[in-house]
Specification:
With 212 residues, this protein is α+β, with helices and mostly antiparallel strands. It is built from one helix and nine strands, in the order H-E-E-E-E-E-E-E-E-E. It has a domain of 147 residues. It starts with 14 loop residues before the first helix and ends in a 25-residue tail after the last strand. The model has no long low-confidence stretch (mean pLDDT 79).
C-alpha cells in the first residue's frame, strides 16, 4: 500500500515546516547574541565606572595631601604667594619628597580629548619668595567635560577667582554641567609661616607651646 505524504508518520518536513524551524533557529541565535552584547556592554560600563571612581579618589588624595602641606609665604613685596583662578591655581607647600624644601605648586586645567586634563607642576622656592624654573607639568587626572576651580572664603561661599589678602579655606573643582556641585575639595589647615614648618627653630617667631 502506498501512503500519502500527509498521512505517513515517517515522512520528512514539509517546506513550510522547514522554513518555520529555520526562522525559530535564527530567532534563538539573535536572542543569544543580543544577550551576550548587552552583558558585554554592561561589563564594559562597570569597568569604566570603576576606573573613573578609582581615578577620582586618587586625584582627591593628591590634592588633599598637597593642601595639607600648604604654607603661608610672602613675596618680596609682602603679598601672600597664592594665585587662584578658574583654570589655574598656584600656592607654596612643603615638598613631601624633599623635606625642608618649600616648593611652589601649580595646577592647570587644560581642555583635552573632549574633556579636561588636570596638570601638576612645581618649582623650588628661592630667597624672598622668588622661585626657580617650573618643572615639567604632569597630568594627574582626565575628566569628561569642562571643569573649573572654586575657592572657599571665610563666609562659606565658593568663589570662581581668589583675590583675598590671605589663602582661602579650601579649593575644589566643579564640572560646568553642574557648577553648584563642588567636588574634589581640598582644605588648607591652619597655615603657619614657612620658617616654622619644621617645628621650633631660631628663625621661627612662634613660641614652642604652639607645636604638638
Amino acid at each position: 500500500m502506498i501512503h500519502s505524504p500527509q498521512t505517513d508518520p515517517e515522512a520528512g518536513f514539509t517546506l513550510i515546516e522547514a522554513l518555520v524551524a529555520l526562522a525559530l533557529g535564527v530567532a534563538v541565535v539573535v536572542v543569544v547574541l543580543s544577550t551576550l552584547h548587552i552583558a558585554s556592554n554592561g561589563a564594559a560600563r562597570a569597568v569604566a565606572a570603576a576606573s573613573q571612581a578609582e581615578s577620582f579618589a586618587r586625584t582627591g588624595s593628591i590634592l588633599a595631601g598637597d593642601a595639607q602641606h600648604g604654607l603661608r609665604m610672602r613675596d618680596g613685596a609682602g603679598a601672600v604667594l597664592f594665585d587662584g583662578q578658574a583654570h589655574s591655581l598656584t600656592f607654596p607647600y612643603m615638598a613631601r619628597f624633599s623635606p625642608g624644601t618649600p616648593a611652589l605648586l601649580q595646577y592647570d586645567l587644560v581642555p583635552a580629548q573632549g574633556g579636561t586634563d588636570l596638570m601638576r607642576a612645581e618649582a623650588v622656592v628661592l630667597a624672598q619668595g622668588a622661585t626657580g624654573p617650573m618643572g615639567q607639568a604632569q597630568p594627574i587626572w582626565h575628566a569628561p567635560g569642562l571643569w573649573e576651580f572654586r575657592y572657599l572664603d571665610t563666609d562659606g561661599t565658593w568663589q570662581r577667582d581668589w583675590s583675598g589678602p590671605d589663602l582661602p579655606r579650601a579649593f575644589g573643582l566643579v564640572a560646568l554641567t553642574a557648577p553648584q556641585a563642588v567636588e574634589l575639595v581640598a582644605a588648607f589647615p591652619d597655615l603657619i609661616e614657612a620658617d616654622c614648618a619644621l617645628g621650633p627653630n631660631p628663625a621661627c617667631h612662634l613660641s614652642a607651646e604652639v607645636f604638638p
